[in-house]
Amino acid sequence: MSLNKVMLIGNVGKDPDVRYLDNGVAVASFPLATTERGYRLQNGTEVPDRTDWHNIVLWRGLAEVAEKYVHKGDKLYIEGKIKSRSYDDQNGVKRYITEIFADNMEMLTPRAAAAPAQPAPAAAEAARNLSSVAGTDATNDDLPF
């Protein structure tokens, strides 16, 4: 029996690069950074933070979600399989790459932090109208709720 399962929580390094194959299937790829916090040894030696970069690959629906909602800096939970492959570069040198093919992705960055909310014009107008009707500042009322 064998198992190939990877679970990562990290920050997106750059906006996803999304491509569409000839048959319309979406493929997204982006780097994900995971960081182990540094610490101090008993003898006083400082061990610095250590960041590892992972190449994430998403297919089909996950790739389309990433295209719309995932941006540089977002925190993600990624679950998938680790795969390695090799290729020959332009100079004929054999290169190796390790990728995480995601089966599951959870966005952990709150939407309010990802996209700053702008106050709705109707809500601002209603607050101004309430102020003028009440004759006071609407934010300093004595309502118990």
Number of helices: 3
Shape from CA axes?
globular
Order of helices and strands: EEEEEEHEEHH
How many strand units?
8
Helix content estimate: 10-25%
- Class computed from helices, strands and strand pairing: alpha+beta
Biggest beta-sheet profile:
5 strands, mixed, barrel
Q: Order of strands in the sheet with the most strands?
A: 1-3-6-8-7
Distance between the termini: 59 Å
Average pLDDT taken over every residue? 83
Low-pLDDT stretches: 117-145
Q: Approximately what portion of the residues adopt beta-strand conformation?
A: 35-45%
Describe this structure in words.
With 145 residues, the chain is an alpha+beta fold. Helices cover 19% and strands 44% of the residues. It is built from three helices and eight strands. The chain has a five-stranded mixed barrel with strand order 1-3-6-8-7. Strands 4-5 form a two-stranded antiparallel ribbon. A hairpin with a 5-residue loop joins strand 4 and strand 5. The radius of gyration is 24 Å and the shape is globular.
Please give a quick description of this structure.
With 145 residues, the protein is of the alpha+beta class. 19% of the residues lie in helices and 44% in strands.
